[in-house]
Amino acid sequence: MPNVTSSVGSPKASPLPDGAYLLKEVELTEKGQVSVQLRDQLKIYTNNRFMFAFVHPEYGIDVGAGIATWKNGVMVEEPRVNQKGTVDGLSFDIDIKHTPAGFSQTLLGMTYEDGRCLDMVESWVRASNTTSLFDGLWQLKEANRVKTKIIGGGHFICLETVYKEGISDAAFWFGTCTFNNDAEALETVLSSSNQKYIGAHQTLKVALTDDENFSQTFILDGAEVIEFFQRM
């Protein structure tokens, strides 16, 4: 994940509606040269939390999730997890402007680990602002696995990192999430870092134990799997 060294905010900006947003395009300016990229990327804002995921053409998996707060008209994002694991001490001031279709997001002075520095303007289109009882940012932690999941705007994003013999392997997938009732959900994968997940459908039994705990149950290779998440 790149570092943001500076950004500009609009003091008159109003809070961005919760929901799921799909990236339309991103305009990059590097050393005065402008280019436009198209990529499969989803971003969800819900209940003062955010998460995004995509595969960067040069750097691979790029996923971030954490706290999102409006301060003086600027969206302040504080990541708590990314594709490399837990994140601490980072804060990104992001200039967001409403558009008829969604919003634009400006990041100035982005510095990558290889020293590249560029400005980025992303254009986002609202996919849905549907709400559910399960909206929020959730995390499952086990001895050898961490799964972070956000639900909001009729969509979901999931990042799973598996640890084995000191090596971590991260993968993400995102798509639509339809709740047939308060106990069942249907997920359809639209994009993933693993091509075999794309287009997959999965039916989940879901339950809120309380405001801070959520479980999902599904069938994997003929066996029932129950996962327990805590709200982040």
Describe the fold and architecture.
The structure is a single chain. The protein has 232 residues and is mainly β. The chain folds into two domains: 3-128, Lipocalin; 136-231, Uncharacterised protein PF14869 family, DUF4488 (Lipocalin, Beta Barrel), CATH 2.40.128. It is 0% helix and 69% strand. It has no helices and 19 strands. It has strands spanning 3-6, 19-30, 33-37, 42-46, 49-56, 60-71, 74-82, 85-86, 92-98, 102-111, 117-128, 136-141, 145-152, 155-164, 167-181, 184-192, 201-210, 213-220, 223-231. An eight-stranded antiparallel beta barrel has the order 2-4-5-6-7-9-10-11. The protein is globular, with a radius of gyration of 18 Å. The model is unreliable at 1-13 (pLDDT under 50).
In short:
This protein is mainly beta.
Categorize the overall geometry: globular
How many domains in all? 2
Uncertain segments: 1-13
Helix content: under 10%
Mean pLDDT over the full residue set: 90
Topology as a string of helices (H) and strands (E): EEEEEEEEEEEEEEEEEEE
Strand % is over 45%
Query: Main beta sheet: strand number and arrangement?
Result: 8 strands, antiparallel, barrel
Q: What is the CA-CA span between the terminal residues?
A: 20 Å
CATH class of the largest domain: Mainly Beta
